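Researcher: For the record, we're logging two predictions in this thread. I'll number them. Prediction 1 follows.
Model: Prediction 1, sequence and structure:
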Amino acid sequence: VKSNGHRVGGIVNGITGSDTKEDGTGIDYKDSANFPANPPTYTNGIVGQALRTTPGRYVQIPGSAATDVGAGSGFTFETWFKQDFANSAYVLASWNIAPSTQGVSIGTSPTRGPSYLEANLVDTLGNSRVLSLYTYSPYPSGTYLSATNCNHLALTYEKASGQAILFLNGSPVVATNFGSFTPRTTGALTL
C-alpha cells in the first residue's frame, strides 16, 4: 500500500506477509490477535513467502495513520494474487470501520459476481465510485485472468486530477475520472 506524498518516499507500508514484525507493519502474523479463529497459512509467493487467505482466513491490521492512505494526495494499492478455484469469491483488501461502515475495497464484485474484479473507492461520506472489470473476456492486452498463475493487480488514485486506474498484469484495463475526493481508509485494513 503506497500513498503518494503521504510519507517521505511515498511508501506507507510494504506488507510482505512475512511471519515476523519486520515487514513494516509491526504485526506478528503468528499472533492470534490479528486473525480470526482460522489464521491464513503460508505458501510460495512471487518473491518469498506469501499469505494464503481463504474465506474466514485473513489478516486484519488495525487502522492507523500508516494505513490511512486516503488522507494523502492519492494512493496506490498493489498485490499479487492467485485464485485457488475459478469463479471463487474473494476480497484482496478492504478498509472497514466496525462491521457496518465500509471503506475502500478491492476484490471480486459482491453484486456482479466472482467473474468481475472490482475496486470500490468509497469516500468519507459513504459514496461509492466503482471500477469494474469482467475477467473472463479479453481485456486490452488480449489475455485472460489466469486461474492457475499469479496475477498482478494495482489500483491507483490521484486526488488532484481525480484519475483512477485499475491495472492487471502491468496493463491499464479500466480508467476513469472520479473527480477529487478523500477515500475512506481510516478503518482496519483486512487482507
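Researcher: Logged. Prediction 2.
Model: Prediction 2, sequence and structure:
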Amino acid sequence: FDLGIGDGLHHRRQQLYRTALPAASFATDLPPAVPDPVRYSRRMSTAIVIRPAKPDEMNAVHELVQTIADETFADLFTTRHVPIGEADWLTAWLAIAVNEIVGVTMTRDDWLSDLWVRRDRRRHGIGAKLLAHAEREIGSRGHGTLRLRVVKSNISAVQFYESHGWRVHREFPHEKFGHAMYEMIKPGSSR
C-alpha cells in the first residue's frame, strides 16, 4: 500500500513510543566492522543516533508510523486507522534518542519513500538529519534527481521539504484514494 505521504510512509501506536531497544542499539555496542553512527544534537539535550533498523524492531517501527499517520491524516479517511499497509522496514534508518525510536526514514532507488518523526520530537532537527541522511543515500546511487511524494494538504511537510531545497514538480490525485498529492524533486549532488 502507498498512502503517498512519502511513497509508502508509515506510523506507530502511541503506547509503543517509548519502546525499549536492546542494549546493542547504542553506538558503543556496534560491531567494529560497522561505522560509528552519526550523532546529532540540535536544540536537544540528548544525542540523536541515526542507525539501521534491526529485524526485531519491525513491529515497533510499523506501529510508530501508524501512530504518526493516524495523527497526521485522520481527516482524509473515515476508518479508525489510516491505511498504511505493511512495509519491510529492514532497509530503514532510525533516529534513536535515549533508547527510543523517535524517527524513521527509508529510500528506494531515487525516491525518499518514508520520513516520519514523532510529534513530540519535531522541530528539534531530527527530520532534517533524517532527510540529509536519506538524500546522501539516494545520491550515493548516482541519481541526478531525488524524488518524493507528499500529501498536498500536509502543508507543514511541504514547507519542511521546500526549506531543504525541494520543489513541487507536479500535482496529481492519489492513485488509490484520490486525495491531492505532490511529487517533489531536488537535484542530486554531484559526486
